[in-house]
């Protein structure tokens, strides 16, 4: 998600309806209540901080690999 926003503040300050629509679109409508998730995202964004670029790039890669692995090894829905 942070790849789409310059800062956590820009995500946190986004209009709640726009944030919910963004989450519904990017989450492919998998969230039963995108508005509730949007509220949780604001809390997480406000409690986060920007990592240094080298750390951020490495962490993003590790998370991406982990998500890909779990997606490939997940059972049917």
Features:
single chain; 77 residues; mainly alpha; 65% helix
Question: Can you characterise this structure?
Answer:
The protein has helices at residues 8-12, 16-26, 34-46, 53-73. By secondary structure, it is mainly α. The chain has one domain (2-73). The longest helix is centred in the C-terminal third of the chain and has 21 residues, at 53-73. The mean pLDDT is 83.
Helix and strand layout, with pairings?
Layout: H1 8-12, H2 16-26, H3 34-46, H4 53-73
Helix pairs in contact: 2-3
Rg, rounded, reads: 14 Å
Enumerate how many helices there are, as a single number.
4
Helix-residue proportion = 55-70%
* Span between termini: 23 Å
Helix/strand/pairing class, anyone? mainly alpha
Number of strands: 0
Tell me the overall shape. Answer: flat
For the record, the count of structural domains works out to 1
- Write the H/E string, N to C: HHHH
The residue ranges in which pLDDT falls below 50 over 5 or more consecutive positions are none
Task: Give a quick precis of the structure.
With 77 residues, this protein is an all-alpha fold.
